[in-house]
Amino acid sequence: MSTEAAINLEDLPTLRQQTICGEKVYQLEDPTAYRQLCERLLAAGYDFPQCLSGVDMEYGLRTVLHLRRLSDQAELTLWLDVPYDRPHVPSVSDLWGGVDWHEREAYDLVGIHYDGHEDLRRILLEDHWTIHPLQRRYDTGGYLIPDWQAKPWPDWDAIAKEKEEAARKAAEAAEKRAAAAKAKAAKAVKPKEGEGGAKKPPLSEVKKTSDQVAKPKAAQTADDLTKIKGIGAHYVALLKEQGITRFEQLANLSDDEAKRLEEKMNFKDRIAREQWREQARALQEGKS
Amino acid sequence: MSIPAALMTGPTVLEPVVGKTDEMIVNLGPQHPATHGVLQIVLGVDGERVTRAVPHIGFLHRNHEKIEESRSYAQVIPYLDRMDYVSGLQNELPYCLAVEDLAGLEVPERAKYIRTAMFEFNRIISHLVWVGTYMLDLGAITPFLYAFRDREMALDIIERTTGGRMLPNYFTFGGVRRDVHPKFWQDLLDFLDYFEKVVPEYETLTVDAPVFQARSVGVGLLSQELAVNHGISGPNLRASGVAHDLRKDQPYDAYPELDFSVITRDEGDVWARSKVRMDEIYQSIDLIRQCAELAPRSGPYLARGRVKIEAGEQRYRAAEISRGQLGVYIHSDGGTGPYRSKHRSPSFVNLQIIPDLFIGQKFSDVIAILGSIDIVLGEVDR
Amino acid sequence: MNLITEAAKALRDIGKGMAVVSRAAEKGKHTNLYPFEMPEIPPVSCQSLALIIEADGTDRCVSCLACEKVCPSQVITIERTRNPEGKGFVLERFDIDLVNCMYCAACVEACPVSAIVTIQDFELSTYDLQTLKADKAFLDEQGRRAKQWYSPKLGVEYRNEQGEIQVAPLEQQPGGEAELLKQADKESDN
Questions:
Q1: What's the topology of domain C48-173?
Q2: Best interface-test mutation with B: which of A101, A104, A159 has the largest number of B CBs within 10 A?
Q3: What does the pLDDT read at residue A8?
Q4: Final residue of a domain: which of A127, A149, A171?
Q5: B362 close to B220: Cβ distance less than 8 angstroms
Q6: CB-nearest partner of B164 from C9, C46, C178
Q7: Are residues A125 and A12 part of one domain?
Q8: What whole-number distance in Å separates Cα of residue C124 and Cα of residue B81?
Q9: What ipTM did this prediction achieve?
Q10: What tens digit of pLDDT does each residue of A52-65 get?
């Protein structure tokens, strides 16, 4: 972070920063600023040139430079947009030798001219090739698409504002939704508590009198019993038949009850051997 | 049709330098067997010393990137195999990682281990091809026969699961295309048990052999600063003393769970690059064993999901394949396929260093240095 | 290190190398005498494509055009007409340009009824490339000749002696291990 702060970015014209998909992106439109920023980034320790690609954006041509700092593996992306009629970008191959052939490739396939590159020739295609095939005005066969038209240069300020607006609106909507959900939950919980309170005494009485191991309680939701080692989906279903759906019920089983359960469900001492009750108690404590 | 004059001044044909009457121009390639494909290097030679070197590439150019503009995201994957045909499977991974990132797909645990084991297995295969062909360049035919014998067995295991040998088209977004063969892990372990005993034989015949050492120690020195500045990656970078390995520095798939350390050497010469590759074979054996131990034997192998990527999203993802950092840059316009995908192939970048390594060296060392960089022309030209 | 020790070390290391080579000679051969000894190819291997016809002579293909849409090389051509009697379509034409096909098996993945499958017949060499512009008769013949084939939906299948199509046992299927484990798990549960 400290080296990040050391890069002075404020005096560079038309610079925008954004984060796309977790990647830090510096967006530029001024070639001289691009060169200056690159020099500063190299000084700030971005020593490993990962990739340089040319992209035809249909309003102009874009150079995308990916850098990496080997000391802390920080990554960074630079965009520089240039118009079709002036596709000149200062070369940075003297700063990073590794972008040398990438620049030649971008010149060859996309048609961006890198000023100051000492050997800017076509690299993949033959020297007498006339088109730059990765431009969108050519189809896969290399022929001009008849009614292809360049798009107008985008108004980045307006787009940024729009994006901000959309993000703000989304955040507001999310907040509203969250608030509504909260209110709904509060409403829903209250009557349930009342119901549960009313039903509790008879249920506990039933439990005392019944020789059944346990009864499910309407107010309480089922726990994920598969968290206990030894219980799979198959056993969860069997336990549910016996009315056991929560850790608490499993933890409070007495030895007799456990034995009966094992007999009924053909468990063969698994409750004791795999320590279901102890596990359930631990999980119950962890939950509450 | 006029050709801009500026474009023709490049050294397609080297002009002899005035005053240096002894300089001779030698064309190495494009049909030279030691260039591993169709690579042309125009060399200026003064006696035994190389004075100038200009590599020319593009003889295998197919322009994958233009083809991919008109393909959907899933349709691109078979084309990726054909970039680096020696380790085809490894090419698919960075692209899959990038699309998974953009589309927000989660890879199931089991698929991660399958992918990692396959990835490392391909590294062994790729290094085997390198051992064989490199020793062939240097005049030793026997290691080539051994390497291809073992590679055949390894490819059989890959074929039993993926259905392809060199171009398997196996990885996909969210996992792998089909489940593994029932005996996949057992086959792998059996092969590794056999192979582990064979690798010392390779070492005896290559890095430990006095003839090879005489040709490689101190030859083709690549300094640390030059390597980093030129974006060299893979074993070439690590042999110059830089501990940069994306498996460690930007881990993907199952690598965070595996226990390994980055192999480096400080010499930076041809021998060090060879030694690093030999050590990486041992490392891969270890990593596959760890995968076989940790991988769940049942569970989903593919998380199916729709690949829908918003307009303006972009991602650069890279993975450490056997030759270095293979990166892919995807720019989306919201359509069904990538608006632009650029492949940063390691051989393409590593080949740039050739003039710096060649100039001043003896002519007989040229092939030794070129082979030690380990290039695959299909990947250079794409 | 003087010259004698250096020479002695070099001789020793070369001797080691020669020992490796002589040991390898004892290990036997690793090559096949190809047209006389056929290599063993796994059933999932994608060497060529075929169309499968059921034992009763009906096409599996329902002309849904899924393979045509998904093909990256765009080598599949299908023409179909509406079935005059009832539902579905009648397949008029099913061509695959096997010259330009890159055997990525995307069509096999996409097929909902496992009509198009991968087979292991790799001997497609020919003097005339036009013979590889496969039409439906060609692909049907490939499917009839194939001993076994693979499709992701149904797995490895083969034709038995009566000409009926059967699914291969789990031990030969991709993912068979996971299935076998699941079965074993169920048995131990019950």
A1: Alpha-Beta Plaits (3.30.70)
A2: A101
A3: 67
A4: A149
A5: no
A6: C46
A7: yes
A8: 22
A9: 0.85
A10: 999 988 888 999 99
